[in-house]
């Protein structure tokens, strides 16, 4: 499915943008935020798109959770929220950490620039650990603006960690649950790198386990 969701390109290597391009990306992300948010609201009303979709018993992947959605989140047994948004994206319509805490909902913000960026590996690791630590206590609502790209990248990494899936298996599962996810080259690269790091960690653990050490000494 290329950049639109169904498969992961394992051979992507990216060149970092220069300072001028970074500035342009920042400005475009800010200027386009409200028009694209309202577009997403419109599409949810006139198409088959859902504002959010359940991925498994632990995770919901969705768009920006509005303050008015508190009762809906409670009905879904949401106990925590992970936001991939920058501060300016949350100001008008969503709650702060304190605001969610007033409703008994934990909150983790892993700010990532919209449209042209993927979450860094440190944020992906932190987000996955956050979900795993809450496993069995309720649902974690993972979101960005539209629930298509930044948050989908994190959820793919969670699926690989939790179910020991390969990148294409994680992406395909998300695509079945939420068909309008949108993953570009940077997101594919981040997912693939996370998978490689997972495999490297497993290999290291096997080499340093007591059983491995005793086997090597024979």
Automatic annotation (TrEMBL):
<dbReference type="GO" id="GO:0004439">
    <property type="term" value="F:phosphatidylinositol-4,5-bisphosphate 5-phosphatase activity"/>
</dbReference>
<keyword id="KW-0378">Hydrolase</keyword>
<dbReference type="GO" id="GO:0008962">
    <property type="term" value="F:phosphatidylglycerophosphatase activity"/>
</dbReference>
<dbReference type="GO" id="GO:0016020">
    <property type="term" value="C:membrane"/>
</dbReference>
<keyword id="KW-0443">Lipid metabolism</keyword>
<keyword id="KW-1208">Phospholipid metabolism</keyword>
<dbReference type="InterPro" id="IPR000340">
    <property type="entry name" value="Dual-sp_phosphatase_cat-dom"/>
</dbReference>
<keyword id="KW-0444">Lipid biosynthesis</keyword>
<keyword id="KW-0472">Membrane</keyword>
<keyword id="KW-0594">Phospholipid biosynthesis</keyword>
<dbReference type="InterPro" id="IPR042165">
    <property type="entry name" value="PTPMT1"/>
</dbReference>
<dbReference type="GO" id="GO:0005737">
    <property type="term" value="C:cytoplasm"/>
</dbReference>
<dbReference type="Pfam" id="PF00782">
    <property type="entry name" value="DSPc"/>
</dbReference>
<protein>
    <recommendedName>
        <fullName>Phosphatidylglycerophosphatase and protein-tyrosine phosphatase 1</fullName>
        <ecNumber>3.1.3.27</ecNumber>
    </recommendedName>
</protein>
<dbReference type="InterPro" id="IPR000387">
    <property type="entry name" value="Tyr_Pase_dom"/>
</dbReference>
<dbReference type="InterPro" id="IPR016130">
    <property type="entry name" value="Tyr_Pase_AS"/>
</dbReference>
<dbReference type="InterPro" id="IPR044596">
    <property type="entry name" value="PTPMT1-like"/>
</dbReference>
<comment type="pathway">
    <text>Lipid metabolism.</text>
</comment>
<keyword id="KW-0904">Protein phosphatase</keyword>
<feature type="domain" description="Tyrosine-protein phosphatase">
    <location>
        <begin position="51"/>
        <end position="200"/>
    </location>
</feature>
<dbReference type="GO" id="GO:0008654">
    <property type="term" value="P:phospholipid biosynthetic process"/>
</dbReference>
<feature type="domain" description="Tyrosine specific protein phosphatases">
    <location>
        <begin position="125"/>
        <end position="189"/>
    </location>
</feature>
<dbReference type="GO" id="GO:0004721">
    <property type="term" value="F:phosphoprotein phosphatase activity"/>
</dbReference>
<dbReference type="InterPro" id="IPR020422">
    <property type="entry name" value="TYR_PHOSPHATASE_DUAL_dom"/>
</dbReference>
<comment type="pathway">
    <text>Phospholipid metabolism; phosphatidylglycerol biosynthesis; phosphatidylglycerol from CDP-diacylglycerol: step 2/2.</text>
</comment>
């Amino acid at each position: 499915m290329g950049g639109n969701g169904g498969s992961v390109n394992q051979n992507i290597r990216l060149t970092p943008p220069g300072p001028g391009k970074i500035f342009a990306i920042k400005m475009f992300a800010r200027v386009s935020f409200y028009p694209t948010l309202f577009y997403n609201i419109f599409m949810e009303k006139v198409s088959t798109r859902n504002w959010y979709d359940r991925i498994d018993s632990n995770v919901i992947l969705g768009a920006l959770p509005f303050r008015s959605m508190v009762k809906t989140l409670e009905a879904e047994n949401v106990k925590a929220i992970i936001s991939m948004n920058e501060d300016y994206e949350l100001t008008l319509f969503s709650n702060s950490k304190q605001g969610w805490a007033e409703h008994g909902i934990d909150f983790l913000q892993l700010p990532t620039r919209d449209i042209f960026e993927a979450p860094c590996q440190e944020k992906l690791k932190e987000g996955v650990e956050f979900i795993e630590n809450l496993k069995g206590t309720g649902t974690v609502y993972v979101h960005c603006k539209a629930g298509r790209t930044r948050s989908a990248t994190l959820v793919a990494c969670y699926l690989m960690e939790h179910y020991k899936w390969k990148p294409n298996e994680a992406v395909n599962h998300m695509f079945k649950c939420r068909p309008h996810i949108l993953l570009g080259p940077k997101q594919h690269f981040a997912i693939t790198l996370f998978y490689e790091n997972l495999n490297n960690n497993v290999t290291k653990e096997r080499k340093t386990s007591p059983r491995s050490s005793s086997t090597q000494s024979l």
